[in-house]
Amino acid sequence: MSGVRLGGAMADIHHCIDASLSCQATCEAAMEQLAANGMRADSEPMRLLRQCAELCELNARALQKDSRLARRTATLCFELSNQVARAAWLDGNLASNVLARDALQLARACRPLLFT
What we know:
Elements: H1 10-36, H2 44-64, H3 70-91, H4 94-114
Helix pairs in contact: 1-2, 1-4, 2-3, 3-4
């Protein structure tokens, strides 16, 4: 992995991969919790979390493979994780605060790859 396409240091790339995988796990756990509480799979919160989890996984894979699409996936992760963090923060319960924290960490981890 060269990191040339992204312009980021290897440490930045690894940090973004780790944050992507962590956010993916948190989004999946939040989906499970919502489903256990009876929320429908086609509801807006579930769709947002599913998109986030899937995009996080795709981003981690693209970065690991030094894909030409890695800048795009990182950009999308940056944007979507900010949306997830905002929605989770506005929800206000403790589990949502964990989701907001992980989503913001992902946005911070991807940012150096996009704006350097």
